[in-house]
Amino acid sequence: MKLIELFLEELEREVDRSRRALQEVPSGKYDWKPHEKSMPFGYLADMVATIPMWITMQIARNELDVAPTDGGQMKQTRKETSAALVEALDESATGAREAFQKTSEEHLMTWWRLLARGQVVMEAPRHVMIRDTINHWAHHRGQMTVYLRLMGARVPALYGPSADDEAFR
Length: 169
Hints:
Blueprint: H1 3-22, H2 41-50, H3 52-60, E1 63-65, H4 82-102, H5 105-108, E2 111-116, E3 119-125, H6 126-151
Parallel strand pairs: 1-2
Antiparallel strand pairs: 2-3
Helix pairs in contact: 1-4, 1-6, 2-4, 2-6, 3-4, 3-6
């Protein structure tokens, strides 16, 4: 199996899991945090919805500066409903699928850089950065499901059973 096929299959599994988690997002909880040092729930849910966009950038661009010295930043639009989050997931996943379909195995072997204020933070072959992004996505989705539990919302079964979802029983 080639890398592109492997990544496309994994993308589909993770999109499905993310969709199930995002469908449980309660309205009116955007600013909710379990602790003062935690990120707001809505920001976290938005990341889960849009992380596939990172894959698109890792394929289409040679680098990304997450904190450019000119003060520009990637803007996150506030999504207040689970429907808006699922729509954002579908859009970002479509972009990632299209990027994979347009790229080559050789291109995935070329290097990609993550910068902050013009300084290299991480540098690795694109396929390594994409794998790290998928792991990062799973991490934040797991974090989001903990927030769901703490808020008293339903937690879907994702990789195994959940107290709220008997899909694996």
